[in-house]
């Protein structure tokens, strides 16, 4: 019934459809001339983004739980209004409540045959006030073209300023962790969350152990070069001066109920964040937008061989 109403109000024939699946959750399926995508209304979580003729750019665990009060393990969970542990109350949910909330649909739009947009909304309520005592209107704008653009906008609709940390906690689909390097974070200082020490490296990041780092003062782009899938994923961002890199590796993967034991080999998180010291204060009526633009770097065409010579 809910799906019927959503399709009536916001569906776009042949392009955007709402489907409630056996797990009871409602998903948005998008197909246009450049890509396909799947988004969960629970958590406003982009779960799949597949440019034409490509394997998925995003990764979702085969062990993910699809149930209330559990975050879906994969895609782009929204960590909001706090990233990681709550700053003062350790009994509160890690990474906030946005990824555990049902979002509503604000608008959908077929911009052109290559571009489709949906805007989802989460607004303060009696329920959210118990978890975080501030009035807000938060929207997630997802634009599907040959790029995936995700914009998380927080508006302060109350009378007092508030402070947030947040993340577009992106899980990327990779061929094999041994065939991947992250470029763009060289020479940036990071806080190693496993040792609590600050460090810097001057080489692209290769991962061969558990990694959980917050790169501080990082406003630039990152590239995930994957020699196995012969592709490079580019992550451009705005409204963010920190970046988190995470891979749980063997032991932590085994400890997580919603993560396959070997899945650390085929995923990698490079997260566009406002984390640690990168906190954002928003005054009444003002807003802040955290944006990630995820795309594949165009492969250079090989020069054609001239057989006449
Ligand atoms: C990362 C954090 O962003 O998210 C890690 O840096 C954390 O410390 C990871 O383990 C996953 O968090 P969760 O709550 O989804 O298991």
Describe the structure.
- With about 300 residues, this protein is mainly beta.
- The protein has one domain: Beta-galactosidase, Chain A, domain 5, CATH 2.70.98.10.
- Helix content is about 5%, strand content about 40%.
- The chain contains three helices and 22 strands.
- Strands 5, 11, 12, 14, 15, 16, 19 and 20 form an eight-stranded antiparallel β-sheet that branches. An eight-stranded antiparallel β-sheet has the order 6-7-8-9-22-18-17-13, with no helix packed on it. It has a four-stranded antiparallel β-sheet with strand order 1-2-3-4.
- Strand 8 and strand 9 form a beta hairpin.
- The protein is globular, with a radius of gyration of 20 Å.
- The protein starts with a helix and ends in a 13-residue tail after the last strand.
- The model has no long low-confidence stretch (mean pLDDT about 95).
- The structure holds 6-O-phosphono-beta-D-glucopyranose.
- The site of 6-O-phosphono-beta-D-glucopyranose has 9 residues, from strand 19.
Summarize this entry quickly.
The protein is mainly β. 7% of the residues lie in helices and 42% in strands.
Bound molecules: 6-O-phosphono-beta-D-glucopyranose
- Helix/strand class: mainly beta
CATH fold descriptor: Beta-galactosidase, Chain A, domain 5
CATH class category label: Mainly Beta
User: Radius of gyration in whole Å, from Cα?
Assistant: 20 Å
Percent helix among the residues?
under 10%
Stretches where pLDDT is under 50 for at least 5 consecutive residues are none
CATH architecture: Distorted Sandwich
Number of helices: 3
Q: Mean of the pLDDT scores?
A: 96
Number of strands: 22
Describe the main β-sheet briefly: 8 strands, antiparallel
Shape descriptor reads globular
Please indicate the percent range of residues in DSSP E strands (runs of 2 or more): 35-45%
Query: What are the secondary-structure elements, in order, as H or E?
Result: HEEEEEEEHEEEEEEEEEEEEHEEE
Q: What number of domains?
A: 1
Q: How far is the N terminus from the C terminus?
A: 68 Å
